[in-house]
Design brief:
single chain; mainly beta; 1 helix; 18 strands
């Protein structure tokens, strides 16, 4: 397993060095933030804890011959909840895209990596390389422009049994009738293999088989410009996860088959308002629903209810920043997530409010 990760990382490094380092000057942003976090899980009392975060972002872009380009974005973050229970946590990401013309169209190669050395939320070290390759076909303005991609990823986690190999594809079209409005439709499909996820037989015995999932998703998207100061984006989607995963509830001596099969729906919206070059406001909102096809919900005493599990998620966030000179940015930000379900173990909420300072070069 570790050798496979090393091969993937070597391929990513080779991909990042395909293009000579020239082009536009890189942009660099560093920031420091403090926030207060409130959270509650499974109906427990609300807990409050302060958190401090440091973050750095580096972006670079280079034009290539024709209409091609090469771009790299990197981010590194360290945060600490101010409690002895929580260690320092880190998070890193790196993404790159190489696009080069094929006639009037483009071939696109993407590679990226998400990682954490210390782990996030007690999950331990993880590496998540991702890759993507495909075409965007340009048929001209005010026409449907199709695209199709092969996608893949591998999630390696040192702790637990949640390693995931994903192979799939996506296809769809983009349509932009004017500079002010655009529309898109995307179909995603893929296969997941979890080599360390056990399946159970009667009595809780481990069968030796592993979890395999098939996922389908269809999403429509619209974006636009309202006046000169407001950008908006709306995305609505839904899909199906079919899985051979099951779970064994030892306290009930109950084998819950097809426990991860479900239908899911998502509705997302984002609004950006910048009435002045010194001020920017961003708002985002998400609604998500998950309807399990076979998994039973449990009550507060962990007894079977006879109902299929249903989970409803609402997430909202905002960010406001002000700058006197496009170098120093004062930031105010907050977010909230609410989970409602017919199983108390799947309910919870988290709220955060804080601010910080960013320097952009």
């Amino acid at each position: 397993m570790v050798k496979s990760i090393q091969v993937i990382l070597s391929l990513l490094f080779f991909f990042f060095t395909l293009t000579p380092l020239k082009g536009y000057p890189p942009s660099f942003t560093i920031g420091g933030y403090a926030e207060e976090v409130l959270y509650s899980m499974e109906g427990e009392p609300i807990t409050s804890i302060p958190n401090i975060t440091g973050r750095g972002i580096l972006s670079w872009r280079s034009p290539l011959a024709g209409k091609g380009f090469f771009a790299v974005d990197t981010m590194a973050e360290v945060n600490k909840y101010l409690s002895k229970e929580y260690p320092v946590q880190d998070r890193e990401s790196l993404s790159s895209i190489l696009a080069f013309p094929v006639g009037e169209s483009r071939m696109i190669l993407e590679a990226g990596l998400e990682s954490s050395i210390s782990g996030q939320d007690s999950a331990g070290l993880f590496l998540h390389p991702q890759w993507k390759a495909g075409f965007k076909i340009n048929r001209g303005k005010r026409k449907l422009n199709p695209f199709f991609f092969y996608t893949g990823s591998y999630l390696y986690q040192k702790e637990g049994w949640e390693d995931v190999l994903f192979q799939g594809g996506e296809g769809g079209f983009e349509f932009r009738p004017s500079i002010k409005n655009g529309y898109g439709l995307t179909f995603y499909g893929g296969w997941e293999y979890r080599p360390e996820y056990p399946l159970y037989g009667e009595g809780g015995s481990i069968t030796g088989d592993n979890r395999r999932d098939i996922v389908f998703n269809l999403a429509g998207e619209a974006d636009g410009l309202s006046g000169y100061f407001t950008d908006w984006n709306i995305k609505i989607g839904g899909g199906l996860r079919s899985s051979n995963a099951n779970r064994y509830i030892e306290e009930l001596s109950f084998l819950d088959e097809r426990s991860e099969c479900r239908v899911f729906l998502n509705q997302e919206g984002e609004l950006t308002w910048s009435p002045h070059r010194m001020v920017m406001v961003q708002l985002n909102l998400l609604f998500g629903e998950q309807f399990y096809l076979a998994r039973e919900a449990l009550d507060a005493e962990k007894n079977r209810t006879g109902e299929n599990l249903r989970i409803f998620t609402t997430r909202a966030g905002f960010r406001m920043d002000w700058t006197p000179d496009d170098t120093i940015f004062l930031v105010l930000q907050g977010s909230g997530t609410f989970n409602m379900a017919n199983d108390p173990a799947k309910t919870g909420l988290s709220l955060s409010l804080g601010g910080g300072v960013e320097l952009s070069f």
